[in-house]
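YM 10:42: SM-20-related protein sequence, as discussed on the call
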Amino acid sequence: MITETAPELFEQLDFIENPFYENIITDLVENQYCTVDDFFNAEEVAMLRNSLKSKFEEAQFKKAAIGNKNNEIVAKSIRGDFILWLNEAEAGKAENLFFNKINSLVSYLNKTCFLGILTKEFHYALYPEGTFYQRHLDTFQNDGRRKLSMVCYLNEEDWKPENGGELVIYSEENGVEVSKAIYPMPGRVVIFESQVLEHEVKPVQTARLSITGWLKTR
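YM 10:58: structure's back
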């Protein structure tokens, strides 16, 4: 669970508060998830979207599986996306832009919330028309290192709610299950606690593009 840290702990540190990141932390503390519009601007989204499309057309993607890398099973009845894992050490211009922003956020979270994020893993994801991802939790029985899940949407500017592909997050309020549908608008980022919140991707009516990944502890 994410908790806020008392400001006095930073009095002796060279620390500058970032209101944008503080809003993210507040939402995570209060709701266990947050939605951030315009985390990436239109130009950045276009760069990442074009890179994703280019790599997909070059047949670099593979059919996504369920389970971790040690126990992958392709299951079309559970998820239908195609993915390409991103290697930060071999990142191009667009991917470097992405990782620079993510690394800045991770550094701030580690300083303010002492999350102990040490590694991260991200991949491009493309959901063809008619595909989905059934309700699930982003953690494994043999690997509990995922702390925060992130989805960064790269859809076209004219994306509309009727195109589907919304992320539905399930939580509990006063002992009653509630759900929140979040549409994949371009530039939007959703962050949520990997080990707590179940979620699903509803069927898409047109190709849905994103970067999905996890911030991980030791």
